[in-house]
Automatic annotation (TrEMBL):
The lineage of its organism: Bacteria, Pseudomonadati, Pseudomonadota, Gammaproteobacteria, Lysobacterales. Keywords: Cytoplasm, Methyltransferase, S-adenosyl-L-methionine, Transferase, tRNA processing. One of its GO terms (molecular function) is methyltransferase activity. This is tRNA (cytidine/uridine-2'-O-)-methyltransferase TrmJ. It is found in: Cytoplasm. GO terms for biological process: methylation. Catalyzes the formation of 2'O-methylated cytidine (Cm32) or 2'O-methylated uridine (Um32) at position 32 in tRNA. It comes from Stenotrophomonas cyclobalanopsidis. It catalyses: uridine(32) in tRNA + S-adenosyl-L-methionine = 2'-O-methyluridine(32) in tRNA + S-adenosyl-L-homocysteine + H(+); cytidine(32) in tRNA + S-adenosyl-L-methionine = 2'-O-methylcytidine(32) in tRNA + S-adenosyl-L-homocysteine + H(+). Its main location: cytoplasm. Residues 10-160 form the tRNA/rRNA methyltransferase SpoU type domain. Belongs to the class IV-like SAM-binding methyltransferase superfamily. RNA methyltransferase TrmH family. Its EC number is 2.1.1.200. It is an enzyme of class 2 (transferase).
Length: 257
C-alpha cells in the first residue's frame, strides 16, 4: 500500500511491449518511486524469467500487473489518460512536459479520479488510434540528435516526476476539499458518447459527403478539454437521442410523402 492515497489511483499502462525484460525494468522503475500499479496491454511476449530478473525486487508489481487486450479496456474507468509520445504525430493533442503531466495526473488522482499514464511500443510507440484515446500527450525533451529513449527509462522519468508531485501534494491531500464536484465521466462513458455523437452526425448528414474524421477529432478535443461530468454526459446523450429520433421521423415522413 502506497504512503500516498492518490498513488493508488495512478496506473502506468504499457502497450504492446516487445521485450519482456522491459516490463520487468519498468516495474522496478515504479517501485523505486513508491508506485505499484502497472497494466500490460497486449504484450508481444508473456512475462518470463528475464522479466522477473530485471524487476530486481519489484516482482510483486510485475506479477500483479493485469493483462488487457486493448488500451480502451485498460483505461475504461479513467477520467484522465496521458499518452507518452514523440512530437511528430498526425493526432493533435495538448502536450505536456513530464513535470506538468505529473502535476495534472496527481491533482486529478487527488480528487478521487482514476488516471492512466500510457507508454507505447519500443520501436513504434503508440499508434494514432491509441493516441486518439488519450486526453493529452507527454513529451520527454530528449536530445533531438539522439532522441531514442528506452521504455523503462521513460517510465522512470514519469515515475520520478509523479513522486515529486506526490511529495509536494501530501499536506494538501490531508485537508478536506472545499468543493466536491460531481464525478467526471469515465473514459468508457466518453467513448460511448463519442460513438453516439458520430452516429448522430451521420444520421443528420452533418458532414455532407466530407470525411468525418477531422470534425470528430476536433469535437473529441473540445469535449475532453471540458471534462464533462457523468450527469452532463447523460444530458448530452439525451439530446443526441432526441436528435436521432427526429431524424428518423423526418426520413419516414419523407418516404410517405
Amino acid at each position: 500500500m502506497s504512503q500516498f492515497p492518490a498513488a493508488t489511483r495512478l496506473r502506468f499502462v504499457l502497450v504492446g511491449t516487445q521485450h519482456p525484460g522491459n516490463m520487468g525494468a519498468a516495474a522496478r522503475a515504479l517501485k523505486t518511486m513508491g508506485l505499484a500499479r502497472m497494466v500490460l496491454v497486449a504484450p508481444e511476449k508473456p512475462l518470463d524469467e528475464e522479466a522477473f530478473r530485471r524487476s530486481a525486487g519489484a516482482e510483486d508489481v510485475l506479477g500483479d500487473a493485469p493483462v488487457m487486450a486493448t488500451l480502451a479496456e485498460a483505461v475504461a474507468d479513467c477520467t484522465l489518460v496521458l499518452g507518452c509520445t514523440a512530437r511528430a504525430r498526425r493526432v493533435q493533442l495538448e502536450e505536456y512536459l513530464p513535470s506538468d503531466a505529473a502535476a495534472r495526473a496527481v491533482a486529478k488522482a487527488g480528487e478521487g479520479a482514476e488516471v492512466a499514464l500510457v507508454f507505447g511500443r519500443e520501436r513504434t510507440g503508440l499508434t494514432n488510434e491509441e493516441l486518439q484515446l488519450c486526453h493529452a500527450a507527454v513529451h520527454i525533451p530528449s536530445d533531438p540528435s539522439f532522441s531514442s529513449l528506452n521504455l523503462a527509462a521513460a517510465v522512470q522519468v514519469l515515475a520520478y516526476e509523479t513522486r515529486m508531485q506526490l511529495l509536494g501534494a501530501q499536506p494538501a491531500a490531508e485537508a478536506e476539499p472545499a468543493d466536491v464536484r460531481e464525478p467526471v465521466a469515465s473514459h468508457e462513458q466518453m467513448e460511448s458518447f463519442f460513438a453516439q455523437l458520430g452516429d448522430t452526425l451521420d444520421e443528420i448528414d452533418f458532414h455532407k459527403g466530407r470525411a468525418p474524421e477531422s470534425a470528430m477529432r476536433k469535437l473529441r478535443r473540445l469535449f475532453l478539454r471540458g471534462e464533462p461530468t457523468e450527469q452532463e454526459v447523460r444530458l448530452l446523450r439525451g439530446i443526441l437521442a432526441d436528435t436521432q429520433r427526429m431524424a428518423r421521423l423526418a426520413r419516414e415522413n419523407g418516404k410517405e410523402g
